[in-house]
Amino acid sequence: MAEFNGVSIAKAANILFEGNITSRTITFEDGSRKTLGIMLPGEYELNTVHKEVIDIQRGVLEVMLPAKDWAKYEGPASFEIPANSKFKLRVHSLVDYCCSFIKN
């Protein structure tokens, strides 16, 4: 899906790791949420509450999911992160991404 229609967009950015990861939250009419953002090169550790699906539009990164080895992704690509977990990222080049939050 190249664009989203019928959404509201948060004016304030989500800023993590001193601005190395930024995003804006978009909310759909049904209440579901996604973030659209940019990750700059670096290494990061993040947490999830809900299951997440990260779609990489462009860029290269590696991800280490719980109980898994490092896996490399180059956009366009996507991967899932389990709910209530920690994961690590090694971002090799600027990554343009969309993160979907899946509530079960």
Automatic annotation (TrEMBL):
SUPFAM superfamilies: RmlC-like cupins (SSF51182). Pfam families: Ppnp (PF06865). GO terms for cellular component: cytosol. Gene3D superfamilies: Jelly Rolls. It comes from the Bacteria. One of its GO terms (molecular function) is purine-nucleoside phosphorylase activity. It catalyses: xanthosine + phosphate = alpha-D-ribose 1-phosphate + xanthine; cytidine + phosphate = cytosine + alpha-D-ribose 1-phosphate; a purine D-ribonucleoside + phosphate = a purine nucleobase + alpha-D-ribose 1-phosphate; uridine + phosphate = alpha-D-ribose 1-phosphate + uracil. InterPro entries: Ppnp (IPR009664), RmlC-like_jellyroll (IPR014710), RmlC_Cupin_sf (IPR011051). Its EC number is 2.4.2.1, 2.4.2.2. Keywords: Glycosyltransferase, Transferase. Catalyzes the phosphorolysis of diverse nucleosides, yielding D-ribose 1-phosphate and the respective free bases. Can use uridine, adenosine, guanosine, cytidine, thymidine, inosine and xanthosine as substrates. Also catalyzes the reverse reactions. PANTHER family: PYRIMIDINE/PURINE NUCLEOSIDE PHOSPHORYLASE, PYRIMIDINE_PURINE NUCLEOSIDE PHOSPHORYLASE. Belongs to the nucleoside phosphorylase PpnP family. This is Pyrimidine/purine nucleoside phosphorylase. The lineage of its organism: Bacteria, Pseudomonadati, Campylobacterota, Epsilonproteobacteria, Campylobacterales.
